[in-house]
Design goal:
With 174 residues, the chain is an alpha+beta fold. The protein has eight helices and five strands, in the order βαβαβαβαααααβ. Bound molecules: flavin mononucleotide.
C-alpha cells in the first residue's frame, strides 16, 4: 500500500471552477498532505496489526521517487511518501527490540542537550548489542555506532528527491 501526497484532485476542482490552469502548489500544502499521509499510514498499520497481520513501513520507495511516480501513473501535484508492506507471519517468533529509556528521548518544556551522548547511551548500547547477539548477528552493532553510521548513509537518488517534488508542481521557494 503506497501513501501519496494528493493535491491533484483539489487542484483539478479549482481549475474547473475557475476555468484556468494551476501551475504550482505551495510547500505548505505539500507538508499538510505529507502529514495527513503519514497519519493515515500509521492508522492503517495499527488496523492491520490489530487484524493479525504483520506490517513494515517502507521508506525505500523514496530511493527512486521518479520510478514510483511512473509506475503508479501519479499525476502532477502528487508525491509518494511511504509504503506499507503487509502479510501473515511465517510463524517464527521475533523478539521485540528493547527501546531506549524514555528520558533519553522525551523532554519536558525544552530540548535536553546531554554532555556526552556516548556516556548517556552506554547502558542502552550494551542492551542493544546483546539483543542483536541473541537475535540477528547480521546486524550486530552498538546503538551509537549504528546511529553514527546512519547520519551520512544515503543514496544519490535521494539527493534528487527535492527536484522530483519540484517537477511534480510543488513550489520549493528556494
Ligand atoms: C519511516 C520508516 C521507513 C522505513 N523504511 C523501511 C524500509 O524501507 N525497509 C525496511 O525493511 N524497513 C523499513 N522500516 C522499518 C524499520 O527498519 C524497522 O523495522 C521498524 O521501524 C521497527 O523498528 P524497531 O525494530 O526499531 O522497533 C522503516 C520504518 C520507518 C518508521
Amino acid at each position: 500500500m503506497v501513501f501519496v501526497v494528493d493535491l491533484y484532485r483539489n487542484t483539478k476542482i479549482k481549475e474547473e471552477i475557475e476555468s484556468k490552469k494551476i501551475e504550482k502548489v505551495t510547500m505548505d500544502k505539500f507538508y499538510q498532505a505529507f502529514t495527513d499521509g503519514v497519519i493515515m499510514a500509521t492508522n492503517f498499520s495499527n488496523l492491520l496489526e490489530a487484524e493479525g497481520y504483520g506490517t513494515v513501513f517502507l521508506g525505500s520507495i523514496l530511493n527512486n521517487s521518479q520510478k514510483i511516480i511512473e509506475l503508479l501513473n501519479l499525476p502532477k501535484f502528487t508525491f509518494p511518501i511511504v509504503a506499507i508492506g503487509y502479510g501473515y507471519s511465517d510463524g517464527s517468533e521475533t523478539k521485540k527490540k528493547p527501546k531506549m529509556d524514555k528520558d533519553l528521548r522525551v523532554f519536558t518544556d525544552s530540548y535536553k542537550i546531554l554532555p556526552s551522548y556516548l556516556e548517556a547511551f552506554k547502558e542502552y548500547d550494551e542492551i542493544f548489542y546483546k539483543y542483536y547477539e541473541e537475535n540477528n548477528r547480521d546486524y550486530l552493532e552498538t546503538f551509537t555506532n549504528k546511529a553514527a553510521k546512519s547520519i551520512d548513509m544515503g543514496l544519490i537518488e535521494r539527493d534528487e528527491m527535492l527536484k522530483v517534488i519540484r517537477s511534480q508542481g510543488f513550489d520549493l521557494k528556494v
